[in-house]
Design brief:
The protein has about 475 residues and is of the alpha+beta class. About 35% of the residues lie in helices and about 25% in strands. Strands 5, 6, 7, 14, 15, 16, 17, 18, 19 and 20 form a ten-stranded mixed β-sheet that branches. It has a three-stranded antiparallel β-sheet with strand order 10-11-12. Strands 13-22-21 form a three-stranded mixed β-sheet, with helices on both faces. Helix 2 crosses helix 13 and helix 2 (about 60-80) packs across helix 15 (about 460-470).
Length: about 475
C-alpha cells in the first residue's frame, strides 16, 4: 500500500518530498512477502466468500466491487510498466487459472447457481462449470488421484484468466524506483509516536539497531504498518479509530516439496470455509510463481498468537487493550463463539491433522511430499457498534483517515494488496480533494477507467482488458 501511494504521488506531485520508514531491514518482509500471503490477484473469480447466498439467491455485489478494484490494479500496474517504473511484469504477475471447488450435492448445487449468476457478467469472461468426473480429472489430476468419485459429487467452476501476484517483488520494484527518484527509504527504523504540532505531524522514529531516536515533520502521513497500523493511528489521536480494536489471527501453509506434483497442478483452487472460520482461512490449493519458480501451497491453517505482526511482540494484543475498546472486545467475544472454537481446534492440530484436511483436496497426499511453513500475521479489525452488540468483527480492507485529511491508515486483511491502487485512489480523494481537479488528467492517464464502472461498459472493459493483458504479458 505504501509503495503504491508513493508511486502515485510521485507522478501527481513530483516536487513533493517523500520519506519511508520500515522497521525491518528490507522491503516486503511482512504481509507483502510472497510466502506470507496467497498471492491471489483477488478478483472474485473463485473466492466463494465474495458470493454469499442470501434468501436463496447468489449476491454478486461484493464480487463485482472487488473485481472492479482489481481492474484498477491491472491498469495502474500497466501504466507503471509503460513508464519504466516496473520492470518485467513476469517478475510480479503471472497467469494462473482461478477455480472454485465444491464437494457434496449442496455445494455443487450452490456452485452451479453461482456460475449461472456470474456467467453473463462482463467482468467474469470465460467462466465455466464442470461437474463431469472425467473432465475434472483431466483438469485437476493432483486433486483426482485416489478420489472416490462415486462416493461424493465434486465440481469446479472458474476461468483461465486468473493471476498469481508476487506482492513482494512488486513492492521492491516500486521502492527501487522511489529511491531512484529521490525518495528517502530508511530500513531498520520504527515509528514510535505521532503527534500533531501546528499544521504538521511530528513523527518520532527509533533506529532499531542503535536505539537512536529522531524526529521528522510532515504535512501528510500514511500509516501502512500492517498489524501495527491501528496502534499508530491511536497514538496519533485520530478520533475516527476510537473504540476500534484488533484481533490477531496467524496461519500456516503446507508447502509441497515434490517437483512432480508441483508441475502436475496449475491453478488456484478455492473451497468453502469451515463453519466459524474467518474468510481469510478459506482453504485453497494454490499454484504460486515466485522468483521464476513454480510452487504449490495448501492452507492456510488458522492459528493464534498475541502478535500483531509476524516479526512483532507477544505483548502486542495486551498493549492494544484500552478503556475505550474493551466493550468492542467483549462484544465480539460474546458473539463470535464459532470463531473461538475454530481457532482452538486449529491450534490443537499437528502435522497429521493438517494432512487429513489436505486430503480433502489431494486424496493421495503423502507426508513426505509436504512441509509446514508459517504464513503471515493478520489482524482482524473490531469496529465499535451500538449496544447490545458493542463490537463487530470486520473482514476485508478498510481505509481510515482524519477529518482534515492529514493522516490516513489502512486496516484489515483480504483482498488487501490486490486492490492497493483502488484503495490509494480512495485515499487521494479523501485526503487531497482540493487537488483532484488539477490531478484529473494524470489520474485518467494512470487509470483510464477512472470514475467509470466497467461492469456498465462492456466496450471499455474489453479495451482495458486487452491493454492490460498485453502490457502485463498475460496473453503470452
Amino acid at each position: 500500500m505504501s509503495a503504491t501511494l508513493g508511486a502515485m504521488l510521485r507522478e501527481l506531485e513530483p516536487s513533493w518530498s517523500q520519506m519511508i520508514f520500515e522497521r525491518l531491514d528490507g522491503p516486503a518482509q511482512e504481509s507483502s512477502s510472497p510466502w506470507n500471503n496467497a498471492g491471489t490477484g483477488h478478483s472474485a473469480l473463485c473466492e466463494l466468500n465474495y458470493t454469499p447466498e442470501k434468501n436463496g439467491k447468489i449476491d454478486l455485489s461484493k464480487a463485482v466491487a472487488i473485481n472492479e478494484k482489481f481492474q484498477v490494479s491491472r491498469q495502474f500496474w500497466s501504466h507503471q510498466v509503460d513508464n519504466g517504473v516496473l520492470a518485467d511484469p513476469r517478475d510480479f504477475i503471472n497467469p494462473v487459472p482461478h477455480l472454485a471447488f465444491a464437494q457434496g450435492d449442496d455445494q455443487v448445487d450452490y456452485l452451479r447457481r453461482r456460475y449461472e449468476a456470474l456467467a453473463g457478467n462482463v467482468l467474469f469472461p470465460g467462466m465455466e462449470f464442470v461437474d463431469d468426473d472425467a473432465a475434472f480429472a483431466e483438469k485437476l489430476p493432483v486433486m483426482s488421484k485416489g478420489r472416490d468419485f462415486a462416493a461424493e459429487k465434486v465440481a469446479y467452476s472458474g476461468t483461465e484468466i486468473g493471476t498469481d501476484v508476487n506482492f513482494g517483488s512488486l513492492t521492491k520494484q516500486f521502492l527501487t524506483a522511489a529511491k531512484a527518484s529521490g525518495t528517502e527509504v530508511r530500513y531498520g527504523h520504527e515509528v514510535k509516536n505521532l503527534t500533531k504540532e501546528g499544521g504538521k505531524w511530528k513523527v518520532t522514529v527509533k533506529n532499531v539497531h542503535t536505539g537512536d531516536t529522531s524526529v521528522v515533520k510532515a504535512k501528510f502521513v500514511f500509516v501502512g504498518a500492517g498489524g501495527y497500523a491501528l496502534d499508530l493511528l491511536r497514538k496519533a489521536g485520530v478520533p475516527e479509530v476510537r473504540g476500534y480494536a484488533g484481533f490477531p489471527v496467524s496461519g500456516m501453509w503446507l508447502r509441497c516439496t515434490n517437483e512432480e506434483l508441483i508441475e502436475q497442478h496449475a491453478a488456484k483452487v478455492y473451497g468453502k470455509a469451515k463453519v466459524g472460520a474467518p474468510p481469510m482461512s478459506v482453504p485453497h490449493l494454490d499454484t504460486r510463481v515466485i522468483d521464476g519458480e513454480k510452487g504449490l501451497l495448501f492452507g492456510p491453517y488458522g492459528g493464534w498468537t498475541p502478535k500483531f505482526l509476524k516479526e512483532g511482540s507477544y505483548l502486542d494484543l495486551f498493549k492494544s487493550i484500552r478503556p475505550d475498546n474493551i466493550p468492542s472486545y467483549l462484544g465480539v467475544a460474546a458473539q463470535e463463539f464459532a470463531l473461538t472454537k475454530y481457532l482452538v481446534q486449529e491450534v490443537a492440530k499437528d502435522f497429521d491433522d493438517r494432512l487429513v484436511d489436505l486430503k480433502d483436496y489431494v486424496p493421495s497426499a503423502q507426508p513426505e511430499d509436504w512441509e509446514t511453513i508459517v504464513a503471515g500475521q493478520r489482524v482482524q479489525v473490531i469496529k465499535p457498534t451500538a449496544a447490545p452488540r458493542f463490537g463487530s468483527l470486520e473482514f476485508g480492507t478498510a481505509l481510515v483517515n482524519s477529518i482534515d485529511g492529514s493522516i490516513a491508515g489502512l486496516l484489515g486483511a483480504s483482498p488487501g494488496a490486490s486492490i492497493a491502487p483502488a484503495a490509494m485512489v480512495e485515499l487521494l480523494e479523501r485526503c487531497f480533494g482540493e487537488n483532484l481537479i488539477d490531478w484529473s488528467p494524470k489520474l485518467h492517464e494512470m487509470i483510464p477507467s477512472y470514475g467509470k464502472k466497467l461492469v456498465d461498459d462492456e466496450q471499455l472493459f474489453n479495451e482495458m482488458w486487452d491493454y492490460t493483458q498485453k502490457t502485463l504479458k498475460l496473453d503470452q
